[in-house]
């Protein structure tokens, strides 16, 4: 068990987190696509550490803790192994506990380097936003046309 206690303080525990797919966009580059340790005391709700890493909870559709699907009401335990997933577009997750309501896929967007903050806000609101900070102008136009996404037109 990974914990330590100092004096009269509460014991400190560790849990492992791993974020998948576009949720890595919200993490620092050193945290992308790897296991991240989270130190805590007590038993915080799972939503607290997710947001502490910078991932807005509306972006999360599925949380797996120790190989079981959990909701935002789950209380973090010592040595938990947590996998956090965004909205699935091609995997059937019907039998698992989903954390977001389904949003109609009417409006779809492609955003480039100038609109990173907007992409984050739009994702928090549930919009389908494809964002990368290294898109070239031609790529944005091609993606918009082939995937029927809206994009910002230059004047």
Question: What does the model show?
Answer:
Helix content is 16%, strand content 23%. By secondary structure, it is α/β, with parallel strands linked by helices. The protein has two domains: 3-85, Beta-grasp domain (Ubiquitin-like (UB roll), Roll), CATH 3.10.20.30; 108-146, no CATH class. The strands form two sheets. Strands 1, 2, 3, 4, 5 and 6 form a six-stranded mixed sheet that branches. Strands 7-8 form a two-stranded parallel ribbon.
**Helix fraction?**
10-25%
Q: What would CATH call the homologous superfamily of the largest domain?
A: Beta-grasp domain
Q: What would CATH call the class of the largest domain?
A: Alpha Beta
CATH topology of the largest domain: Ubiquitin-like (UB roll)
Tally the helices.
Answer: 3
Radius of gyration: 18 Å
Largest sheet: 6 strands, mixed
